[in-house]
Write a structure and sequence with these properties.
Herpes Virus-1; 137 residues; membrane; binds zinc ion; 6% strand; 48% helix; Znf_RING/FYVE/PHD; mainly alpha; three-stranded antiparallel β-sheet; rod-shaped
Length: 137
């Protein structure tokens, strides 16, 4: 009889442990997703849009990989002249802002082209300072 109770306790105990670890895993997933979303929002806020004609010309760029692509690899649409583009900091690959935003919100995201991790470096306040400094020159 004691053995029966012991087995029952063991089964319930492992069930509870499984439930707890499942809840913890769930929480971890939620946290990493939230962190990724916050990081993506910071990144999207900190980078100003660049219009397509401001991108380096494919013919002018020495390095082929540094040349501006003519289309967004996420939606495969060609950039239209003076269309607002989002240049990923770190690798300078270009996408539509609307296309890269959901991509960046995924946990452990990397650049869709070069798999490099995007870096959040410049807070918006500092960026304003840089742009005003450029205006003074
Ligand atoms: Zn796109
Ligand atoms: Zn890249």
């Amino acid at each position: 009889m004691a053995l029966w109770y012991f087995t029952l306790a063991l089964i319930y105990g492992s069930l509870i442990l499984m439930a707890i670890s499942e809840i913890l895993a769930c929480y971890q997933r939620w946290r990493s997703r939230r962190d990724a979303e916050l990081a993506a929002d910071r990144l999207l806020e900190s980078v100003a849009d660049v219009s397509y004609h401001q991108l380096p010309d494919a013919a002018a760029a020495e390095d082929e990989s540094a040349a501006a692509p003519s289309s967004c690899v996420i939606c495969m649409e060609d950039y239209r002249e003076s269309e607002r583009c989002f240049v990923l900091p770190g690798c300078a690959h270009t996408f539509h802002r609307g296309c890269i935003a959901p991509w960046l919100r995924q946990p452990n995201t990397t650049c869709p082209i070069c798999r490099r991790r995007p870096t959040v470096v410049i807070p918006p306040a500092q960026q304003r300072f840089i742009s005003t400094a450029e205006d003074m020159v």
